[in-house]
Amino acid sequence: MPHVIIKLWPGKTEQQKNRLANIILNDMMEATGCSADAVSIAIEEISRENWFKEVYYPDIENKEDTIYKKPGYGPKE
């Protein structure tokens, strides 16, 4: 615990993805008090053409109870 899955459009370098994973790891440890050994982070590249089918509809739409930052809106209060 925890496992984070990041889904983004292709085009980021391995350096950018590693930097992102490290930033999330550090913030996760700070926010939850867990150790680095407890965290796993995956990055999945999803094409623009498949974004709505593979990400928006299954992971975002109608999931207000689990989404803490919805696209186009500020953080959940």
Question: What's a quick, concise take on this entry?
Answer:
It is built from two helices and two strands, in the order βαβα. It is an alpha+beta fold and 77 residues long.
Care to describe what's here?
The chain is α+β, with helices and mostly antiparallel strands. The mean pLDDT is 93. The chain contains two helices and two strands. It has a domain at 3-53: Macrophage Migration Inhibitory Factor (2-Layer Sandwich). Strand 1 (3-8), helix 1 (14-32) and strand 2 (40-45) form a beta-alpha-beta unit.
Task: Describe how the helices and strands are arranged.
Blueprint: E1 3-8, H1 14-32, E2 40-45, H2 51-60
Parallel strand pairs: 1-2
Task: List descriptors.
77 residues, alpha+beta, Macrophage Migration Inhibitory Factor, 38% helix, globular
Write down the secondary-structure element order: EHEH
| Structural class by helix and strand composition | alpha+beta
* Helicity range: 25-40%
Round the Cα radius of gyration to an integer and report it.
Answer: 14 Å
